[in-house]
Design goal:
This protein is an alpha/beta fold. It is about 40% helix and about 15% strand.
Length: about 325
């Protein structure tokens, strides 16, 4: 392969050819660089070439390429082997047009399911993101909300979460309602601060363009022109979920995220997330995106931990049967 722009070639290779080494290790190929020319040798040389071509296109479009971008390209190939693409090498590469853009940051999908999730949020009024921790389902929902708020497509963001973790209740925590909710909403705050300047977050919280609303306090409201997020929805009851779903008003978008493997409800209490998944399938303008351990974008050890626990649960269930 020969890259015409000598200025961008070193960026593609990475510091001390780190990006090339990452591809070598993942695909069991050998890559030799000579200036703006590289030679790829190995059974998966065509795959490596396609990945490098996709990364080169990103650089030409002014996007960043780092180890996370390389990991994303490798994930797309690994997870979508056998799919069709323009280079005919048997895997897909990330679509450069699928991304979330805020004034502070541009978020690229790092797995095919993340790409589906972004497309679903763009096309549907109600989206369920269901799967294990670390898959980016909450982070990308908040990023999409910020993007739509900045573009003027919605007038406010509503963030909600059941307050049932670790057996604590709101009344036991000190301070006003927002202060009581802060420990539960920390992941949502982190995503907000990552996609919007901190001073803007504080200003919009003060003007209630961004609102923190405990799930139990949503009853009776109609939410118009809003992007509404219910996080940790596996800890909502059936009645709470129905109540929340019917809060949607005109020109509103709703994203519901949850992990069915981390239900903290009392015994014999059914999860509203599980019931809604069974009840609402097939309804127009509602999308269900199911994440797996393969979509975890934290340390790879997290994926292995999730898979080990899933295997243990299945084994225990089989033993009980």
């Amino acid at each position: 392969m020969v890259f015409e722009d000598n200025r961008l070639a070193p960026v593609l290779y990475g510091e001390q050819n780190g990006n090339l080494h990452q591809i070598e290790k993942a695909l069991s190929v050998q890559i030799t660089s000579r200036g703006n020319e590289i030679i790829i040798d190995g059974k998966q040389a065509n795959h490596a070439r396609a990945i490098l071509e996709s990364l080169w296109l990103k650089l030409q479009q002014g996007q960043d390429v780092d180890k996370h971008t390389v990991d994303s390209a490798l994930r797309f190939f690994e997870d979508s082997r056998g799919g069709s693409n323009s280079n005919g090498s048997g895997g897909k590469v990330p679509d450069a047009d699928v991304r979330i853009v805020t004034q502070k940051k541009k978020i690229q999908p790092r797995t095919p399911i993340q790409s589906e999730y972004i497309r679903a949020m763009e096309k549907n009024k109600l989206v369920f993101g269901v799967g294990p921790a670390g898959t980016g389902k909450t982070y990308m929902a908040v990023a999409m909300a910020v993007s739509m708020l900045e573009r003027g497509e919605v007038e406010r963001i509503i963030l909600s979460r059941p307050a049932v973790e670790a057996g604590e209740r709101l009344g036991f925590l000190p301070g006003e309602m927002r202060e009581k909710m802060d420990p539960y909403m920390r992941p949502l705050y982190d995503a907000l601060h990552d996609t919007m300047a901190v001073d803007k977050v504080q200003k919009k919280l003060a003007t209630e363009e961004i609102e923190i609303a405990p799930l139990a306090f949503m009853r009776g409201r109609t939410l118009n022109n809003a992007f509404i997020i219910l996080d940790e929805a596996q800890n909502s009851t059936n009645m709470q979920m129905l109540m929340f779903l019917t809060r949607m008003g005109e020109n509103s978008h709703m994203v519901i995220t949850g992990d069915p493997s981390q239900i903290d409800l009392p015994p014999n209490t059914h999860s509203g997330l599980l019931e809604s998944r069974e009840t609402l399938q097939g309804i127009e303008d509602i999308a269900f995106i199911n994440f797996t351990s393969r979509d975890v974008v934290r340390d790879k050890l997290v994926s292995k931990i999730i898979e080990a626990y899933d295997a243990r649960r299945k084994k225990d269930a089989g033993t009980r049967d």
